[in-house]
Predict the structure.
Amino acid sequence: MISFSIVVATKSRVKLLTELIESIDVARKNYGGDTEVLIVDDSNPEESAAVQKVCEAYDCRYIFHENSVAAKRNYGVAQAKNDVILFLDSDCICTEHILERYAEKYTDEKIAAVAGPLEFVGEDTWFWKAIEATPFLTCFYLPRFIPKVEWGVTANFSVRRQAFLEVDGFDETFKRPAGEDVDLGMKIYEKGYEINAAAEALVYHSKKTWIPVKAMFRRLNFYGTADCDLIRKHPDRGEVVLPKRSMLYIVYALVLLLAAIATQKWWVLAGIPAVFLLENLLMSALVNSLSEEKKATLGQQFVAQLLIHDSDFAYLRRCVTSGQLSDIRRQMIYYLGQYRGMLEIGSYSTWLQLLLMMGIAALIIVLL
């Protein structure tokens, strides 16, 4: 029977972590095999004491380790003793038979890892509907619909300890919580191993940690930065795409800035926010018209486009600061079907933005 070491990296989430540990306790009691839980924490002293108290109550091993999320998970695995490591995030709740569902998928030594799906739960706020209109949630649902994957979100991902160590675990150069889980899965896949999907190994992910507006824009900034780093490590995953909307916008803004400096007519700069707002508005209407399920309002779709821009701008900045200028024209491909969808939407958005820029540029030339 498969033995599990459940590793949870956390910080300052006492209430959410407690709910997760309580759900893990139920899953452990339902499973007949050997299990252990390792909580790797670096909260402040008061919260750390509260976490330790919960760990004592539910037979979890508390480990204090002050570092990045990737480093904390690596440290947890180093302390683990069992065959399979199950990574869960502290803002999740696991289902009561998750361990059985995972164990069922380890049928062959070629299967080095198994990914489970996530379902977001909580209040459907106005901003959450905007988040749902972005493409960033797709990867959380994939294990529900396909039998095998090439990587899995570490909020619900299991891996044989031996395979994890063989690929050197999480790359700790990913200092922020983004990209390190993708990299881990791809390293395992590139070694020739298989990664199964367990549709019923479900975890519920709280929306609370996603819906603060500032936190979400920060998260997508991390995602954009991670895209660039992932293409550097896995160049075959970087596909050349049509010019990014954000790149076209930057070029357009620089041209208007130079025009304003050359003519000393600073009102020309008004064309910079005008194109940005108008393009996002028209793109929002276009995406809603192409969507088979129109769940988002025009306003929510507009915010979704701003979130996409946030990630794209972070990607471009990372390419420039890291010297990966040739990767500016590339896009990280995470799963099959993504590239095809990007070409469809990308072609519309590129032509839309070019036409807008040409129109406003022509108007400015006339006014000059």
The chain has a mean pLDDT of 87. DSSP finds 13 helices and 13 strands in the chain.
